[in-house]
Structure formats: structure tokens, C-alpha cells
Amino acid sequence: MTDDWSSALLTDRYELTMLQAALHSGAAHRRSVFEMFARSLPDGRRYGVVAGTGRFLEALRRFRFDTEVLDYLADHSIVDDDTLRWLADYRFSGDIWGYAEGDCYFPGSPILVVDGTFAESVILETIALSIYNHDCAIASAASRMVTAAGERPLIEMGSRRTHEMSAVAAARTSYICGFTSTSNLQAGRLYQVPTAGTSAHAFTLLHDNERHAFDSQLRALGSGTALLVDTYDVDRAVRCALELAGPELGGVRLDSGDLAMTAARVRKLLDENEAFDTRIVVTGDLDEYAIQALAVAPVDGYGVGTALVTGSGEPTASLVYKLVARARGTDPGTPLEPVAKWSVGKPSKGGRKWSVRRLDDSGTATAELVYDAEPEPEPLARPLMRRLVANGEVVGEEPVEDARERHARSLRELPETAQRMSRGEPAIPTYFEQSVYT
Amino acid sequence: MTDDWSSALLTDRYELTMLQAALHSGAAHRRSVFEMFARSLPDGRRYGVVAGTGRFLEALRRFRFDTEVLDYLADHSIVDDDTLRWLADYRFSGDIWGYAEGDCYFPGSPILVVDGTFAESVILETIALSIYNHDCAIASAASRMVTAAGERPLIEMGSRRTHEMSAVAAARTSYICGFTSTSNLQAGRLYQVPTAGTSAHAFTLLHDNERHAFDSQLRALGSGTALLVDTYDVDRAVRCALELAGPELGGVRLDSGDLAMTAARVRKLLDENEAFDTRIVVTGDLDEYAIQALAVAPVDGYGVGTALVTGSGEPTASLVYKLVARARGTDPGTPLEPVAKWSVGKPSKGGRKWSVRRLDDSGTATAELVYDAEPEPEPLARPLMRRLVANGEVVGEEPVEDARERHARSLRELPETAQRMSRGEPAIPTYFEQSVYT
Fold it and tell me: Inter-chain contact B12–A310, Cβ cutoff 8 Å?
């Protein structure tokens, strides 16, 4: 990948036609506040996880209408010449606030707040939603898998089950949520996620027999490698592996069958041969429930694929990006007024919002408080929103490692109910509060 | 996007470690045949749809280990120097056969067959699976939605609910399956998919009131535009739209509420005002079942988002890429031998395969026949596999429009049961046949 691609057309056409109409009426230049939030969590989940922030900020920097892009829009008469001229100069010049990546969120949490003119803010809708809806969905599943795995490491290996670029984002996101490594090399290169992997059934089948395959792998990759032992007969494969590598064998991988029973049998075989440090890694259609069920099995690590990259039944986070306030004119200083669609059953709260997480004396979260104005700082309320973009300048980028540490802290801060696998209510309630300072 | 990106790291690490081990043992140079197929269709679906072929061929052309990629692999000690040197020269030099894009498939259909050395073929596994698993999942859902919609047009508008690059692929795929257009501008640019879209609730909320918003949109986009009429009160909005645009109004969009009841009321209002040609487009959490349920409502088009881009409950197609045959040596002419993992409940058939769709006298498909050798041509058996890559040269690229026409033909060829929305068995059975010519 080269570094000069434009993200500008990862956009729904209606944003540009709205822009054209608003430029025509002049309303395009009204100060506007858009808010991204979830009306509810994925079905039965106790918390959501903010992910995609870093990717969104990168996409924002790349949101430029270069000549190729403008030519496409002109050739297909998507917008008129005035709009093309405006797009050619496009640079977001406003402010963006949001939850830091890795933090937990709840229904109504204002996880992204975009404050600029209508024109410059509305056209970010699709790219923002695409990134956050995908990454938050993966994160919500990944975080629960990490909880289910306890102290045992998790390898993300779902690349083959999702779009090739989603795969890279899923690897990044699962690492933020506590996965140990990924099979995906591009995630290693772009985001410094540790990578893992040794061999597949094809490698065994390629050789004259299993012994030939194991011998090849051990010679090339050393005895610390992990051998895949379920191509034919598992017990025979483990014995063969031990004959060739001895107790120095790094690991064995099981990818099929009854993983709990097989792992117990393999552990016994390994121990009988004094291969006490040889690790057993299990893979094959694992999700958070299967991982939890394997807690008592002698397993040293899990590889997770399909369930991770498809959000374990919830492949999108259902976040929305709504205009919540706008000035009724373009003069500087015109006050913002709350706006909202009339809805039955889908309450949208108008107005710019600020939020904090209320903590008890022990530092455990008790509620998500969403204010209609910036609340006064206080010790038992952790502010949730940080400035990501200041006057058009991206100021919120950070290493993936920081988001990873933040997620672990944020999850520890929640009450223990958050870590239950069973379906239930959000771990803490969300309250919409009137600030005493307004 | 620029044109010189590499797809080489959209790959699982274990492919490169297997490569290293196989180069070490020499088995890397054995002729090998890999096959991509589905063990079953998505739950209850009657047929699958091949999609991603064009994208895979593009990714294959871009599968090059340039200096940046090699530096990453070297710096992180992913593979050894011999392997790096081999990768630097990598060009796939074999043959690839596969089902043409848009054709239907069934359990066991060999939708992609890669015939080359083990080394050059194994490292294509992840990129091939990522592309086909994503695109086939979307296609399977999209095709059913097109059937449900009958003659009415479908707009793909799910970009915001999926990864930003999956969105582009989903737009392309749904167009192949018969959608009329997409909201996604990048799909318009890259794949010449027609684009559509006018305005969102934010546009109405931005203005002083709904009349102000409608007036702005009509002035900028003309009376042929579609107005979104459900921000406040639908009936009032439709009356206002008609006052401003008259019967020339192009369309109205409904995005919430009981779409069937509201559409009937709006149609009546429009007709009373002689706006007989004003179209009613409905959007908002539609899937194939909701579309079918709206068949009797006075609706002129559907916009589909979430359900399309998430495969309507089946976000991945569960295709696998398996080594099915290899030579037991590297001398030219060494015969291929079938290979397969031992499995219970997951039958894998070893050996290179060829397939045809058996037709009856009327041209209706009756069975998928998968042979262990190339069958003799005959009039009532449509050959399904075409050469996509010949001696390393991509020969199977085609315009998206061709795949779109092929899908319509392929679906018409299936028995009528294929078009049922209810869950059931595959529309035709798959038979594995021994060729009389072997």
C-alpha cells in the first residue's frame, strides 16, 4: 500500500448532493454539531468497546478530493461546478471530540462529536460510521473472548473469513481488546501487532507422510515450532512429533474433533514423555462460549477466526451519526439550537453533549452521565471525551498499545457483571443530566 | 487510491512459514492443486452465488513482494533469507480455473482450482478466501433480495454498516446480483456501478424548517429529486413537497414507521394531487423478507443497507481452500496423487475436479456433476469452469456488467424452488462422478 490514497469517495452519494443543496441555500455554512452514538448495545451485551478512533483519524487526514476524485464526480454529474470547487479546497477545519479508543461505551454515550460547519461535517458521516461500526462490532466480541480466555493467550486468525481489508482492521481491534497476536501480516506491518502461525494441513498433505512433514518443519523452523497434529490420527502424530523433537517441542495445534477430550489425551501423552513445556493450542470454530467451556481443559492458547471477524453474531455496531445542534444562521456567535427527528421508539436527544463515568469510592463505575453542557470536574467522575481534532488539526493519534492498555483499565473499572457471558442489561445505566452550570 | 499497492501481506503468517519449511525440504516445488469449495450453503439457502472472481484476479496481479514488504518480513524475522529471496521474485506461474463470476454454486462445487507448485499456490490461500468468502456471502443475500423485489429496483446503501472497503466490494457484488444502484461513490468510480442518493434527515434539520429544506433541495437538485418526508409528520411533508414541486416531484423517501401503511397513504395523497409519476422509495432495516412483505404495497423502489452488507445473517460463506492433489516429487511429469485430511463429518474429496451443470430438455438445471477428470462435452451439460489464469497470465478479467448478466441467466436456469425465500435444501443436488474417460 502506498501512502497517498484518498478516502474521500468512501462516502454515500447523498452527502455530496446534500452538500450541493446546502451550498445553494447557504445553510451549508451554519455551525453544526453531529454526534455518533448507539441507541442500544448488541443484543444482550453488557458493554460496548470504542474502536476505530485511530483509523478514523487517519481516514480524516486522507479525506481529500484530488483531481482523480473530482474528475469522477464531474464526469458522472454527481454534483455541480460550485460544489466541485468547494470540494477541491476541502479541509476539515472544526473540532472533533470523542471517547478514547479502547474505552467502554453504553447506550447514548456520545462516542464522537463533530463540531464544524454543516458542509465540512456532513460529508464525514459514511466514513466515520463505516470505521466505527465495523471496529466496535469486532471489539465487542473480542473483549468478551479475552474475558472468557482468562490468562490464556488468544491468537486472532479470522482473515480468511472476512473482506481482506476488514481482516486487517479486525486484527488491530482484537489486539486492542487484549488478543495476544494475529495471523494477519498486514496488521503486523501497519499497526505493529505481533504475528503468529506455523503450518496448515496442506503442509502435511504435501509431504510423503506426516513424519516427512514434521521433520521438514522442525528442520526449517526449529523445535520451538508448533506442529499441527490432527491431519490423520492425533495420538500417532503426537508420538511422532515427540520422537522427532523430544520434549523441546514448542507446541502442538488441534484444529478439529472434541477439543477438550483430545487436549486432555494429548496433555497426558506429552507429560508421559516429559514434554511438560510443550504447549497445546486449540483452534476451529471457537467463540466466547466455546472458549469458556474449555476453561478446565489443559489448553495453553486459543486461535479464534470466524466468530471474531463476524462480531460473534453481531457484525455491525448499529452506531448512528446524527445532527444534534445547529446555528440558525451563519454569523459568528449565532447560538447553537438542539435539533432532532421526531421518532417513536427511537429517542434522539438533541443538543451537544458531554459525558463522564460516575465511580464509587472504590473506583468502580456506577453510571454513564451524559450532560447537556460541560460538567465541572470532580474526583468521582472520569471525563470520557477528549479532543481528537483541534481546529482541523488531528491531535488525538496514539499508538495501538495505548488503546490496548486503556481497554484493560476501562474493563476493570466496570462492575463484575460486565464480564458475564450471559445476555443481560448494560453493566451500568446511562442517565441524561441537565448540567447545573448551564 | 493509487494503483501500485501490494496485496502480498493480506496473508496469514503460517503461509510464509510453511513456504520456508517446504523450500527447506524441497517439497515446495512439487506440483500441487488447491481447490476452493463450500461444504454447505449458508443455512437454509437454496443456492450460492460466485462473487469476487474479478477482485481476486486483481489482487493476484498485485501479489508482489516489494522492498517495503520484504523489509517488514526481514525486520520481524518472519522468514529466513532464502525465503525472502524466493518471495522477491514471486510471480504465480501456474493455471487457475474457476466458476465464472455471477454463476450459481452448490455444496462441493469447485469454484476455484489453483494448479501450480505448492510454493506459488499455498501463499494465495488467505487472499483468495478473504475475497470469495466476503463477496459470496453478500451475493447470496443480494440475489435473494433481488428475487423478493421482483421488477422493482433496489438501491444498495449499506456502506455505513460495514468496513469502509467491504462497503465498496458489497456495492460491486450487489450490482452483479441485480441491484440497480449503490450509494457508494468509490464503487461507482472503481467498478462503474450506477450511484444514487439525495438527502438525509440532517439536511432537513439543518434548515429553519422542512419547507426551507425542501425548497433548498428542489432549487439545487431540480424537481426530479427525491425528498425525504419522514423527519416530522409524513402527510404534512408530502403536502409541502407537492406545493413546492407540483406533480413533477421525482420521488419521496420513507425511512421509518410502518412502511406498507405509510406508503399506501402517501400514494393516495400523491395521486389526489395528480403526482401519478412521483415515486415512493422505502428504506430502513429492510431484508429479503421485509421486501417480500412489501410486494403488495405501492412502493417503487427499495433501499437496503445493514442486511445486505452483513449477508442477511450469514456474513461469511464458509468457503475453504484445500490441497486436493500433489505430485510425490518434483520431476516434470510426476503424476498428481489425490490427498485429503482424515475427517469425520467433513468429507473432503481428494483429487483435481471438473464440473458441469446437468440440464433437462427445457434447459432447467437438474444436478451439479463433479468429475475426477475432464468430462466429454455434451449438449445437456453446461461446463462450469473456465480458465482464469493461464501460465501465470490473468486471462479471465471481464466487466462487472458481464457477471451481472451471467447471474441473471444462471438463476433463471435453476428450478423454481431456488427462488423460494423459505429455508430448504439446495435447489439441485451435487453428485461426485467418476469420469468414464479416466
Answer: no
Model confidence, pTM: 0.97
Backbone torsions φ then ψ of A45, nearest 5 degrees: -75, 155
Q: Which three cell numbers stand for residue B288?
A: 429479503
Among all residues of chain A, which has the CA nearest to that of B5? A1
Of B20, B59, B159, the CB nearest to A126: B159
Q: Give me the residue from B188, B189, B199 closest to A14, CB to CB.
A: B199
Q: CA separation (Å) from A402 to A131, A156, A255? A: 19, 19, 33
Residue of A nearest to B196 (CA): A13
Nearest CA in chain A to B341: A231
DSSP-derived pairing of the beta strands B354-359 and B365-371: antiparallel
Distance CA A386, CA A356 (A): 11
What dotted CATH number matches A13-138+316-351+382-401? Answer: 3.20.140.10
Q: Does domain B13-137+315-350+385-414 have CATH number 3.40.50.300?
A: no
Helices A400-413 and A53-61, interaxial angle, to 10°?
140
Quote the DSSP letter at residue B178: T
What is the spatial distance between Cα A109 and Cα A129, in angstroms, rounded to a whole number?
15
B233-251 pLDDT, tens digit each: 999 999 999 999 999 999 9
pLDDT per residue as tens digits for the range A168-210:
999 999 999 999 999 999 999 999 999 999 999 999 999 999 9
Identify the residue among B4, B206, B337 best suited for mutation to test binding to A, counting A beta carbons within 10 A and taking the highest.
Answer: B206
- pLDDT band (50, 70, 90) for residue B1: very low
Give the Cα separation of A368 and A414 in Å (integer): 11
For chain A, the structural domain boundaries read 13-138+316-351+382-401, 198-297
- Could A163 and B159 be called an inter-chain contact, meaning their C-beta atoms sit closer than 8 Å? no
Q: Is B315 within 8 Å of A72 when comparing Cβ atoms?
A: no
In chain A, residues with a C-beta closer than 8 Å to the C-beta of B162 are: 130, 133-134, 163, 166, 315-316
User: Residue A199 has what pLDDT?
Assistant: 94
Q: How far is CA B423 from CA B42, B142, B289, B418, in A?
A: 10, 16, 12, 10
CATH class of the A198-297 domain in this structure = alpha beta
Please name the amino acid found at residue A188. G
**Number of other CB atoms surrounding residue A438 within 10 Å:** 10
**CB contact (8 A) between residue B189 and residue A344:** no
Cβ–Cβ gap B326/A232 under 8 Å: no
Class of domain B198-299: alpha beta
- Maximum Cα–Cα distance across chain B: 81
**Chain A hits for B30, Cβ within 8 Å:** 206
C-alpha to C-alpha distance for A96 and A93, rounded to whole angstroms: 10
Residue B219 has pLDDT above 80, yes or no: yes
pLDDT digits (tens, 9 = 90+) for B59-88: 999 999 999 999 999 999 999 999 999 999
Render pLDDT for B272-326 as a digit per residue (tens, 0 to 9): 999 999 999 999 999 999 999 999 999 999 999 999 999 999 999 999 999 999 9
For residues B380-398, b (16+ Cβ closer than 10 Å) or e, as one string? ebbebbeebbeeeeeebee
Q: What percentage of chain B exceeds 70 in pLDDT?
A: 97
Q: Find chain A residues with C-beta within 8 A of B160's C-beta.
A: 12, 125-126, 129-130, 133, 321
Backbone angles phi, psi at A113, to 5 degrees: -130, 120
